[in-house]
UniProtKB/TrEMBL annotation:
CDD domains: YitT_C (cd16380). InterPro entries: DUF2179, N-reg_PII/ATP_PRibTrfase_C, UPF0750_membrane, YitT. Keywords: Cell membrane, Membrane, Transmembrane, Transmembrane helix. It is a multi-pass membrane protein. The keyword rRNA-binding does not apply. Residues 221-275 form the DUF2179 domain. It is found in: Cell membrane. It comes from Clostridium aciditolerans. The keyword Membrane applies. This is YitT family protein. Its main location: membrane. It holds the Pfam family YitT_membrane. GO terms for cellular component: plasma membrane. The chain crosses the membrane at residues 7-25, 31-50, 62-92, 107-126, 146-169, 175-192.
């Protein structure tokens, strides 16, 4: 229950970022940088009477059903929560901050800020095995069957909307939209890669038993023990290896420093860890 609450809370934070990036930076400049939000911006520019948030909600239904059927109910449930969170937040922003205008005359700067905020939010959502809905569901389906990185899948799914943006808003804004989609795809892959970076740690210490207990009992991680012979004096030593996240590594390093300053530690960054205690093997 606690784990599910944490996951939904993280998804909500991602949704909040996507909504703010879209409403304050992309929408006022008519930058339709892909996604359902981009499609909603295009339609809203043609029919201003139709609110962006309401349009986003209306366009989600078919894609929701598709995502649930193809990817599964857990993904579908999280995606529904995220998508309606984004749409609902935008509706609230439209109520409390109506008629938002571009924050500056520099469209490129606003594009970059909008994509940065939205891209980080989307990456957070994807990392929780969800999506913001709309074309992101299509991206997730492509990712599932073709094993292409999620950022590239988003790029594939959004390219049609950027072409439409070029037709509706002109080639200049269309080119901005294409640039935004490319930046967004790159940022999503980068953020997800960093969110899933772990530390593979090998430790040689005279306090091996204490370190093993700390890893298992305090960090709630396992460890592998093997023995190696040193080339300098031919002594056989115990080597403790484990994989931990960044926060756990800092705790482990501080603990080892407190009990054995002469410990020998090697650290490697691991971009993906699959199996028990980590991501499932897909």
């Amino acid at each position: 229950m606690k784990k599910n609450f944490k996951s939904f809370f993280i998804i909500f934070i991602g949704a909040l970022l996507v909504a703010m990036g879209t409403y304050f930076f992309l929408a006022p400049n008519h930058i339709a940088a892909g996604g359902i939000s981009g499609a909603a911006i295009i339609i809203n520019s043609i029919f201003p009477i139709l609110p962006i948030g309401a349009l986003m909600m209306a366009m989600e239904v078919i894609l929701f059903i598709t995502g649930i059927l193809i990817i599964g109910p857990v993904f579908g449930g999280k995606t529904i929560f995220c998508s309606f969170s984004v749409s609902g937040i935008i509706l609230l922003l439209e109520k409390f901050f109506p008629n938002v205008r571009p924050l500056s005359n520099d469209m490129l700067v606003q594009l970059i800020f909008g994509v940065l905020i939205c891209g980080v939010g989307m990456a957070i959502v994807f990392d929780q095995d969800a999506s913001t809905g709309g074309t992101d569901i299509i991206a997730k389906i492509i990712n599932k069957y073709f094993k292409i990185s999620i950022g590239k899948c988003v790029l594939i799914a959004d390219i049609i909307i950027t072409v439409a943006a070029s037709i509706v808003f002109g080639i200049d804004k269309g080119m901005y939209a294409i640039l935004g989609v490319i930046l967004n795809a790159t940022l999503i892959d980068t953020v997800i890669r960093n969110l899933n970076t772990y530390k593979q740690v090998a430790i040689i210490s005279n306090s091996g038993e204490e370190i093993k207990d700390y890893i298992v009992d305090t960090l709630d991680r396992s460890a592998t023990i093997y023995y190696a012979k040193g080339a300098y004096n031919n002594n056989e030593r115990e080597v403790i290896t484990t994989v931990v996240n960044r926060k756990q590594f800092l705790k482990l390093k501080d603990y080892i420093k407190d009990i054995d300053e002469r410990a020998f530690i090697t650290v490697n960054e691991v971009n993906e860890v699959l199996g028990e205690g980590f991501a499932e093997i897909a």
